[in-house]
## 1
Amino acid sequence: MNVAVTWQGIYPALLTPFTAEDTLDLDLFETNLRAQIDAGVRGLIIGGSLGETSTLTRPEKLQLLERALQVCDGQVPVIVNIAEQATRDAIAAAQEAEANGADGLMLLPPMRYFADSRETVEFFRSVAESTKLPIMLYNNPVDYKIHITVPMFQELAQIPNIEAVKESTRDLTNVIRMRNAFGDRFKIMGGVDTQILESAVLGVDGIVGGLVDAFPAETVALYEWAQQGKIKEAFELYQWFMPLLELDIHPKLVQNIKLAAVATGIGSEYVRAPRLPLVGEERAHVQGIIDRAMANRPSLAVPA
């Protein structure tokens, strides 16, 4: 039976751990999953950009889904990312995820082809109508060049299982724009690590995070303190966290965050080619950011 997806709280966009032999490291994947659940995340997203989705095979994605469902055991929903070039492939991936027990989907616009507004809406409509699963659209024109605008959402609002948006435009006023246009019709999930506190203050329903893969407790605390009005405590934690969070808004975010997860004992540095682990001055720079953060890692105890 599917777990209800509320699109609230912290949803990590999970890393995909590999072995030195370039196979899935499912045991390490489970270690990270358990750390996320123990920290209080409210959902899990597998096979996203941070999960190196473009290099994963369909069978590997199903292996990750199977292990995630086993570990979660109904505690939190498991969301599968859909990032395909052809509409028919996206439909097939969505139906395959549903048949194998996924609780929901994160759906990206068409990959590679720069679809116009009409084509993008039809792509989303076709995939949504092929499945009963709840869907969160990923609005990230910075990286994927397609902006899902308010007029496009007005068309998509007629499709009931399109329930949420991962808001990664990096324009925080878009949160207010969406609320003004739709009220609570769409759940809004902040999607940029360096805007977590601002997004929470603006009233997003949750956060899809990256550095949460290495620092789950800190990410959950930051969002929840902001929600609870503990702004002073949240701001101080945010100041400490910011150099790490900036590792997420970088072309090598996968390597960066995997290196951070090594430091906290819940990840490995192995990536899948053509990605390569960081080396030389680049690695030293990122490791320095991580080391400084670890040396000053704050207590999460907050006065009542």
## 2
Amino acid sequence: MSVRTMNRRAVLLAGGASLLLAGCTSTSAPARVALAAAPETPKSPDSVPPHVQAMYAAVMDEPYPIRASRMHLVPERFWRQEVTDPTGEKPGSVVVDTTDRFLYHVRDDGTAMRYGVGIGAAGFEWSGRAHIAYKREWPTWTPPSDMIARHPELERYRHGMEPGPDNPMGPRALYIHQGNVDTLYRIHGNPDETTIGKAVSSGCVRLLPQDVIHLHANVVSGSPLLVV
């Protein structure tokens, strides 16, 4: 996406686009068809450069161990990297490009950290301006009532699913509010490499566990968020 295109979208969204209320889906919920096919991926684990393997290595100093991400399953353009900022947003902003499936964290030197993401499936897309109200490490996940109605097997989690390796929120979550209203959308971790670059969730933005830990460590609560 060009800077001009992204800025034009930002102007349109600033006019009052609102977020649709929904919630993050469980990995146990039926998978949805991706809206776009992912680019061709590397053929084998050996094709992943050592520095990328190091970025996505196993994390053992957390309350729950995190396995190494299998980056040969993730298209190269979705690997975490520093890029020239294409967004035009102020430093500290988080920008989600739902077309190209990137999340940008804008820096104050004209660059941005870019992450590959999975986004909401058809019927669960959302866009607009909001902010990161707060952050959590190893969050509890509580499916909203409308999700439980669609997936009755989630009833046992109506009052929350404890943190852990099976929790669909992963090791970190950033909570998205508009004003004082919780949108019920989150930016969170997910270990399924095949969801990166695809539209598969119930609206939330998914990053690989190592990426969401990195993002969580660098984003400040209260930071502005733009989804285009």
## 3
Amino acid sequence: MDERFASGLSTNHPMGSYLEALHHTGYYYTFIGIAQVAAAILLLIPRTVTLGALLYFPIIVNICILSFAVRFDGSFVSAPLMVLANVYILVWNYDRLKYILPFKKISDYGIIEKPKKYSNKFPFLFFTTVTVVFGLILLVFIYGHEVMPKNSLSDCKKQFIHTERETEGFQFCQCVHKEGKTLDTCLEEFENIND
């Protein structure tokens, strides 16, 4: 109550700065929290799971895009996976959603419409796809960005220890965590040091 989300994250960090500003919006911050709790409750009740997934979808897509935009370690992997889980719930409940969608008639190709009888065969294609997507998300997290601000100054510096860009990396970390400059400014300075 009356505490910023991820309050341990410095306001100099891009995500910390965003959350601090969001916290100062007053009842809008509370509204977002209530919407998240309402979506969670609706997702837990089988009869209202579709409504919960519809409510939660814009929330988690926003969190996912925000995580990538500011390179936030805290939800860089989990947010895209939650988006995929939400999409899975929406597709699974397509038979309930098709009445509110603006399409007149869509061929189901035998994959969207629920079968009259379910097969007991293990869904290898589904689990292979999930494993590949999970692997791709991890690869983007590990190799997608040359530089990450990380969640603290010490974590930021760890990614540069014993590398050829250790000095420039430490300056980048200082720029984000101590000087509080924008992520774009710090990234630009990081790139210009080597030029």
